[in-house]
Design brief:
The complex is a heterodimer of chains A (830) and B (337). Chain A is α+β, with helices and mostly antiparallel strands. In chain A, 27% of the residues lie in helices and 29% in strands. Chain A has 5 domains: 128 residues, no CATH class; 202 residues, Rossmann fold (3-Layer(aba) Sandwich); 110 residues, Sandwich (Immunoglobulin-like), CATH 2.60.40.10; 255 residues, Class I glutamine amidotransferase (GATase) domain (Rossmann fold, 3-Layer(aba) Sandwich); 96 residues, Immunoglobulin-like (Sandwich), CATH 2.60.40. Classes of the chains: A alpha+beta (830), B mainly alpha (337).
């Protein structure tokens, strides 16, 4: 009921306020006060009200005139005035006098300021185009030649241009939310939140931003933009970036979404937009353990940019692990690169002639005008432990199956293996094959413990002594010997259920279920359909399966290998065992778990492998010289041997899933530790340390794995590129301190370093699609002008506060009526 | 001085060249067209096998079909695709062939179908070769004993020169039959059976004595120049005795290359069966070239029904062609390098 008629502005003096019961502090200083009648009549109601009031006043006049002669005129007029005053006061209360106040509110939208903190922002660009070099020079305050030689990092340029003036100008357009983004989005400073939390903040306070730290393992520009756009109050997004986006998601739909929401993208390109000439060693791998005089491969992946078709010189370097400065060039090779930019595989073969731990690296000699010379050699060399003894392998087969025939030939030819075979069906007049021939199955502890690995290919349980099987159990548990069991259609069922041999079930990393019924069902089923290998993507980097450095290539190769016809109906892997390959037949599920075909595990201190299928000989013919068949078996043997060779004087070892990790990876380390009596260590936790090649050591705690005596686990985040040595000391405080060590290499993330030049055109397109604008690094003064000004001022009115409903007004009424009553009493008018 | 250096560099390059050559992989050699030819051939061969009756497992048809030798060769052709007794797409066919040959293995150790007039030591050799591959893979429990008996028969019937002829008796010998038995004995030895050293040594001696000055191997001792099929057989038998560096092999392979087009159609499949194995063992560029030639020729020769034809019967020719085409897959142990 507050229209133009009833509403009136009324400056409120303090005493008036007090009169009507309003405290001054209730009214904001900047408020505009108004006096209103909340019950004022409208239209003809006004006349009705006036008529009623006039009628009442007239009645009053008539009444007091009729009292003429009873008292003096002066008294009668006074009494009449009192009565009329009461009537007017009641009429005023009827009108509902009230006050209200109006405030003006400033609505500020959010402006997102995103800083690219990925690793590529640490690049020092060469700025091949003169114009780009001049821009960088203007921003950095250096000369063009300085920019090109020592130049600022991209992150330095960002720090220079995001200065207080720019921030202040932007703050006029809204509240700044500053984020750094890499693989995730991290809040740097939130003016919006600060303002809401603290009313005392003064508007012109300039945000103080910390320097940009470009160490992120990836550039998820998609994530950064998506999260910013999710804010309904956003009015603009400013991003300082080189335009690299390692996310798989496309940015264009986001830019269109930004346009629909009216949130333009203001993108500032940082870096050299011309793809640089660069050679980068992105990956380097070698087996962590090799044998003396046995050639091994050092594999590197060289990424090339702008050097297509050129011939480059590549060196293979070797140095003792303890002193990288003593590196010697083992071999130099000229490599002619493909015409297209991409990846080039470099493969060196080296025959070690000295035992011990050595580090190997690949160095590419710089080409003319190469942009980055620091990545021509990886900061994380491959560490190789060269053993001076051959691996002793005992191969036992139930009969001359093709698997045995192929494997026996392969392992006999392998230089690092000293093979002894025991073909159970071999004619007694024949000498068992192998590098070291045997005339009987090694049956004593002394004989069996001479070996590092025992391979059992579908052995015939009838030809094995139960005591020998028990000894085999000790071989794994105490001797850290590696054991592989490959099931076969002829003997597997009997071998795993026969009381004399079934204790093998304890050793194997697999749970088998009811073998009798499974075997019957297996016998009844046809084996005429080839099933592809159910390769587990997460497992293809396992040392047994590692054909290539790149996971996807590795995965695809494994998937391309011939599948299988027969498999043993195992149920699932035991806890802590790792399934590498499953059966792909959807009908072969048990307890919602696919049938496992290849599992690695641990029994005691020895490594174990369960192979639940046969027919790996079908993989012969794949690759050069049966490459994939050969490497699979050699890697299996190496894996099994490694468990034994890793033992540090029998007191334990530290191992990880792989030896080379990327920045940002969470590295998990498993340790098996024993006390001075060679019993499993019982401590709840063991202190360790990670020592980077450069930098301070980082403490690490190995925690006992519940239920697995002597097994410990620790983890740390890969933060720094380079060689890292993990160390645990046993027997600290005694005279016999024993150090158990493990070397790991940490390399930059692949995606982040693949295409590091600034994507100017991409950024321009995105900005245009969003209705925004692209800026060069020296044009950022225009940024604030380009951000839409969506600051709005609105008026808010407080609820009407009645001014009649208070003690003052009641008192006036009482006084008036009381006074009239007293006078009438005095002059005997009652 | 300068010329000396040039000469050394030239010789060095020539020595290094073969080792630098990267042999083609099976995936390169077995082209999609070859794969189709193999599939069609295997399907045809499977359709020729008897699936019931007394001769279940034999291959019906003309010529030598129905013999244990054809069953052995056809079984080897299926094995080349990765089938073993009872396991694989054609596992049942291999199993049936195994059963058929075992049923026709006499107590004397001679494998021959009763009443089969064309059965002879060729068939014995091919059938035994097949059994040695099936041993260790089949569930037939009598296979080991029967193979041992067959080996003993061969040991007992080897003539003084080290060879065999058409009948299981000590008589004269020819290289063709002899190589058949040598391959079977070598395969038996790989499978863990005992083959006396004197028998093996005499085999090698016989093959060496069959070698002629022109690099070929002759049919019978003292007969002079040999033929394309026998030279292939001779070279393969030396390889199977683990002899890899021998001038006889080099000259034999040269002879095969020179006479490749001279392989008489009558012995085309038989001759190339050995010659292809010989070049497979040789490896490298020579193998790549040889395989490409034989592959293209065989594909061109294949009939619409997937068979290959020969005067010895389509089952014989189809089996031989399939063995040759599938060699790069390196599945069957006896043909493995």
């Amino acid at each position: 009921m507050m229209d133009g008629f009833s509403q009136m502005t009324f400056p409120l003096a303090t005493w008036w306020g007090r009169l009507f019961g309003i405290r001054p502090e209730e009214i904001p200083e900047d408020a505009r006060l108004e006096f209103i009648f909340t019950n004022a009549p409208q239209s003809w109601g006004v006349f009705v009200l006036l008529a009623i009031v006039s009628g009442l006043v007239y009645t009053c006049l008539r009444m007091y005139r009729s009292e003429a002669g009873q008292t003096s005129l002066r008294i009668r007029n006074f009494l009449m005035a009192l009565r009329i005053a009461v009537l007017l006061l009641v009429a005023l209360v009827f009108l509902g006098p009230a006050i209200t106040f109006t405030r003006q509110l400033r609505i500020e939208p959010h402006i997102y300021l995103l800083r690219d903190a990925s690793g590529s922002m640490a690049i020092v660009d060469r700025f091949q185009e003169e114009a780009d070099a001049k821009r960088a020079a203007r921003v950095s305050g250096q000369s063009v030649s300085q920019v090109r030689s020592i130049g600022p990092r991209r992150s330095d340029l960002v720090d220079r241009v995001i200065n207080p003036e720019m921030v202040q100008e932007l703050q006029k357009k809204g509240k700044l939310r500053v984020y750094d983004f890499a693989d995730d989005l991290e809040l740097v400073n939130d003016r919006a939140q600060t303002d809401e939390d603290d009313d005392e903040v003064v508007e012109d306070t300039v945000l103080d931003l910390p320097p940009l730290i470009p160490e992120g393992p990836a550039t998820d520009l998609y994530l950064a933009l998506r999260k910013s756009l999710a804010d309904q109050s956003a009015s603009g997004i400013i991003a300082f970036t080189d335009g690299q986006n390692t996310s798989a998601a496309s940015l264009e739909p986001l830019a269109r979404d930004a346009k629909n929401k009216g949130v333009p993208l203001m993108l500032v390109g940082v870096g050299d937009p011309v793809p640089p000439r660069n050679l980068q060693v992105v990956d380097l791998q070698a087996d962590s353990q090799v044998w003396l005089n046995d050639p091994f491969e050092i594999r590197a992946l060289l990424r090339t940019q702008g050097v297509g078709g050129e011939t480059v010189s590549v060196d293979l370097l070797e140095s003792p692990l303890t002193d990288a400065s003593e590196a010697v060039v083992l071999e130099s090779r000229d490599v002619t690169l493909a015409d297209e930019d991409g990846s080039e595989r470099i493969l060196f073969s080296h025959k070690p002639t000295k035992p011990g731990k050595m580090s190997y690296n690949i160095r590419v000699k710089p080409v003319d005008n190469e942009s980055n010379l620091e990545d021509n050699q990886t900061a994380a060399p491959a560490v190789v432990n060269i053993l001076d003894e051959s691996a002793r392998v005992l191969l036992i087969a139930g009969r001359a199956m093709w698997e045995y025939r192929a494997l026996q030939t392969l392992l006999t030819r392998e230089k690092f293996i000293d093979l002894s075979c025991w073909l159970q069906t071999l004619d007694p007049q024949r000498v068992q094959p192998g590098n070291t021939t045997i005339r009987r199955l090694p049956s004593s502890k002394a004989e069996l413990f001479e070996y590092d690995v025992v391979l059992l290919l579908d052995p015939d349980p009838a030809r094995l002594d139960p005591e020998w099987v028990k000894l085999l159990k000790r071989f794994a548990r105490e001797h850290a010997g590696g054991i592989l069991y490959m099931a076969g259609p002829r003997f597997a069922g009997r071998f795993l259920s026969d009381p004399n041999t079934s204790i093998m079930k304890d050793i194997l990393p697999v749970r088998l279920g009811d073998i009798g019924s499974m075997e019957v069902s297996s016998l009844l089923s046809l084996h005429n359909q080839r099933w592809p290998l159910g390769v587990i993507r997460a497992s293809v980097d396992h040392p047994v399966m590692n054909y290539y450095q790149e996971t996807e290539t590795n995965y695809q190769r494994w998937k391309s290998l011939p599948g299988i016809y027969w498999s043993f109906p195992a149920v699932e892997a035991k806890p802590a065992a790792q399934v590498l390959v499953n059966h792909s037949n959807p009908n072969f599920y048990s307890l919602d778990v696919p049938r496992p075909l290849l599992i690695t595990g641990q029994y005691g201190s020895g490594r174990t492998v369960y192979v639940g299928f046969n027919g790996t000989w079908l993989w012969r013919g794949k690759g050069q010289d049966n490459e994939f068949y050969n490497r699979y078996w050699v890697q299996l043997v190496r894996y099994l041997v490694r468990g034994r060779a890793l033992e540090a004087e029998g007191r334990g070892y530290i191992e990880s899933e792989k030896d080379t990790w990327h920045i940002g990876d969470q590295i998990t380390l498993n340790a098996r530790l024993r006390d001075e009596h060679y019993d499993n260590l019982e401590a709840e936790q063991v202190a360790g340390v990670v020592q980077p090649d450069e930098g301070d050591p980082m403490p690490l705690t190995f925690h006992a794995i519940p239920g697995q005596s002597g097994e410990y686990q620790a983890g740390f985040l890969a933060r720094e590129v380079g060689l890292h040595r993990v160390k645990v000391e046993l027997g600290v405080g005694t005279e016999d301190v024993l150090s158990i060590e493990k070397e790991l290499s940490i390399i930059p993330p692949n995606l982040e370093t693949r295409a590091t030049w600034m994507k100017r055109q991409t950024l321009k397109n995105l900005a245009s699609l969003s209705g925004g604008q692209y800026f060069e690094i020296d044009e950022t003064k225009k940024l604030a002008d380009a951000v839409p000004n969506r600051v709005r001022t609105i008026e808010t009115q407080s609820p009407a506060r009645p001014v009649w409903d208070n003690a003052s007004l009641l008192m006036i009424l009482v006084i008036l009526l009381g006074l009239e009553w007293a006078l009438r009493k005095r002059f005997k008018l009652l | 001085m300068y010329r000396n250096k040039m000469f050394t560099a030239l010789i060095g390059s020539l020595v290094l060249l073969p080792s630098l050559y990267a042999e083609k992989t099976a995936e390169d050699l077995i082209t999609p067209k070859t794969r189709i030819a193999i599939e069609k051939g295997l399907k045809h061969l499977a359709s020729r096998q008897l699936s019931r009756g007394r001769d279940k497992g034999a291959f019906a048809g003309s010529g030598y079909a129905g013999s244990v030798g054809i069953a052995g060769l056809a079984g080897l052709a299926f094995m080349g695709d990765g089938n073993t007794p009872g396991i694989g797409r054609y596992g049942k066919h291999v199993e049936d062939a195994t059963g058929f040959i075992l049923r026709n293995t006499n107590t004397s150790g001679y494998i021959a179908k009763a009443g089969n007039e064309v059965g002879n030591m060729y068939c014995h050799g091919f059938a035994l070769l097949f059994l040695t591959q099936a041993a260790g893979m089949t569930l037939h429990k009598d296979i080991d004993e029967k193979v041992k008996t067959c080996i003993n028969m061969l040991v007992n019937t080897q003539n003084d020169a080290g060879g065999w002829r058409y009948r299981p008796a000590k008589s004269d010998a020819d290289l063709s039959v002899t190589v058949c038995q040598i391959m079977a004995l070598r395969a038996a030895r790989d499978a863990g059976f005992h083959v006396p050293d004197p028998t093996r040594n005499k085999c090698i001696e016989y093959v060496r004595n069959s070698n002629s000055k022109n690099g070929s191997f002759s049919y019978t001792l003292g007969r002079g120049g040999g033929s394309f099929p026998l030279t292939g057989a001779g070279v393969v038998s030396l390889y199977s005795a683990n002899i890899y560096d021998d001038p006889m092999i080099d000259k034999g392979l040269e002879f095969l290359k020179l006479n490749r087009t001279g392989a008489r159609s009558h012995y085309y499949y038989y001759g190339n069966y050995y010659a292809t194995q010989a070049f497979w063992h040789r490896g490298g560029k020579e193998w790549d070239e040889w395989y490409a030639h034989i592959r293209d020729t065989l594909i061109a020769k294949q009939g619409g029904d997937g068979s290959w034809g020969s005067s010895y019967g389509t089952e014989f020719a189809t089996s031989m062609a399939l063995i040759m085409l599938q060699i790069p897959q390196d599945h069957t142990p006896v043909f493995a390098r």
